[in-house]
Amino acid sequence: MAEKNNADGNRKDEQLEQFRAEDAGKKLTTNQGLKVSEDEFSLKAGERGPTLMEDFHFREKMTHFDHERIPERIVHARGFAAHGEFELYESLKDFTKADFLQDTSKKTPTFVRFSTVAGSRGSAETVRDARGFATKFYTDEGNYDLVGNNIPVFFIQDAIKFPDLVHALKPEPHNEMPQAASAHDTFWDFVANNQESAHMVMWAMSDRAIPRSFRMMEGFGVHTFRLVNDEGKAHFVKFHWKPVLGTHSLVWDEAQKISGKDPDFHRRDLWESIDKGDYPEYELGLQLIAEEDEFKFDFDILDPTKLWPEEDVPVKIVGKMTLNRNVDNVFAETEQVAFHPGHVVPGIDFSNDPLLQGRLFSYTDTQLSRLGGPNFHELPINRPVCPFHNNQRDGISRQTINKGQVSYHKNSLAANTPAPASEEEGGYVHYQEKVEGRKVRSRSESFKDHFSQATLFWNSMSEPEKQHLKDAFSFELGKVKNKSVQQQVVDMFENVSLELAAAFAEAIDATPPKGLGSNVEKSSPALSQLNTVKKPNTRKVGVIVGQNVDGEATVVLNTLKEEGIKTELISDKLGKRETSDGTEHEVMHTFLTASSVLFDAIYLVGDRDVSSKFKQDALYFVKEAFSHYKPIGGTHEGLTWLKEAELLDNPGVVSGDNMKQFAKDFTEAISAHRHWDRQVNL
């Protein structure tokens, strides 16, 4: 065995040396052989100016990347979607001329696609990853796409580096592993050598990267956009989606187990919730900064690796989106929907965020590859609800049958129709920002602080959340094989938090950090999920029963139902159970077909007349849920079992003989989501 291991090690060393030899002394070039002088920054009009179309290197690199996979999306391949509608609370006429953000009487149809980023279409849904949150508004002025994530910042500052990020994050090309995971050498090597990623990595290692459900997940537009009103006055804006149910997450062990128990966990949750009428709701929030205040902050507001702390720039809640209809056909809708940050309406414009500037090119290019040509806008899910007219013709999958001989502008044969619309007629007019500067490949000095907001995030976390961050870094870097990469990450994150870096350095047997750490003391309480909304409704409770069910248990089930809590019965066999008061209940799961990780809480009713195997299986459910800090309830024989298991008198463990009071206390425990002050030492 030792000889085989040595042989495998020598072979890997030889392969590495061969790889190094092939590239040794070589210079980076375009596909035409032109040597490239800069591969970090796209070509811009001044350091903080817009990206230029003449940047052939960026376009070649991005075009190649966009066309690497056919037909599956390269990123965000694993997704699920639903239809909905958006209602405005108050007119935003002072800020934007966008019609759907002015008229409070309108209900604007929407279509939302949620997704993971790294995995393929067949990957599990509860992996540690950022989540896409893309919304298409079908407005009377055309389609508007708010293409965001559940994390408000991103790994990189310039779109030219996006192919590099995704190549590093995706399965390593020599063996196509690991799938849908960032716990491997190339990703962390990228992080260590592209330190602008520090802030995003903190979010990715936090509980935000393992959401409880799409219904309990925030959404962010990520980039800085502009709102422009009828007078031409502009405000910088960031968009937020705030889930009405609050922002909640899984714990890591639970998330891993769900990936095996139900890899469709998130889509099933969304589908079933809408199917039952428990419509997910999200409030739209705006952060607004007047143009004259652009430089009043200790960060660059155009930097996509930075957020605007809500305490500094409050979120103005302006409307609500309700998802109220499931798709009829996943392929025709979820897979064929085409989002693009450049799909805007009058009153919404762009900033010079260099990541956004690149996406404005990349998304069209990607749809050309995925959907076979330029007519993807004619697919039913992508068609605007308002009419559209232009001189574009032909192309793959053309559905419109145009009549007449004219297909150009200007013309006299068709009286110069369709003709451009003036601004007064609703024609889109770009915001007239003054732009000047030398053509450069460089980055503004104001973009070069990579650690302050990463520390801000750390400072804002509760103690349980900080422990989860330590555990996540320890897990991910524990999967990294290269000791140098591990050490580089330790050295990098000592700039964020000595406490954090020291914790995972010890776990992976790396040299502890020796620096001074960060002197940033600022925090933002809004970033901690400890401060989120906590509601019990739509939570799912697994109720463990035997063959004989006391009628008083019905009182508990009915009370939970009144609070909007969903209960599903679990036993050793499926079928109906009639309680002592004559009420009939359906057992939906057995110990084989269900798992505690698929429920938000466990209610143990139990039964005296069951086998020792039944009791053993029931207590396994309960103990696993207990280890994940979930609420546990026990009445009747279940109360006796909890006492024998020494689980009583722990936070979030509720018991009692008075069923009304028990149901009330159990509801409060469920509302808390997790009970982190519980000592788990089973």
Automatic annotation (TrEMBL):
Record region (Disordered): 1-32
Catalase core domain segment(s): 29-417
Reactions the enzyme catalyzes: 2 H2O2 = O2 + 2 H2O
UniProt feature, compositional bias: Basic and acidic residues: 1-26
Keywords: Heme, Hydrogen peroxide, Iron, Metal-binding, Oxidoreductase, Peroxidase
InterPro entries tied to this protein: Catalase, Catalase_AS, Catalase_clade2, Catalase_clade2_helical, Catalase_core, Catalase_haem_BS, Catalase_immune_responsive, Catalase_large_C
Gene3D superfamilies listed in its UniProt record: 1.20.1370.20, 3.40.50.880, Catalase core domain (2.40.180.10)
Cofactor(s) the protein needs: heme
GO molecular function annotations of the record: catalase activity
Keyword Metal-binding: yes
Its EC number(s): 1.11.1.6
Pfam family, one: Catalase_C
CDD domains on file: catalase_clade_2, GATase1_catalase
Enzyme class: oxidoreductase
Keyword presence, ATP-binding: no
Functional summary from the UniProt entry: Decomposes hydrogen peroxide into water and oxygen; serves to protect cells from the toxic effects of hydrogen peroxide.
Family that this chain belongs to: Belongs to the catalase family. HPII subfamily.
The protein's name in its UniProt record: Catalase
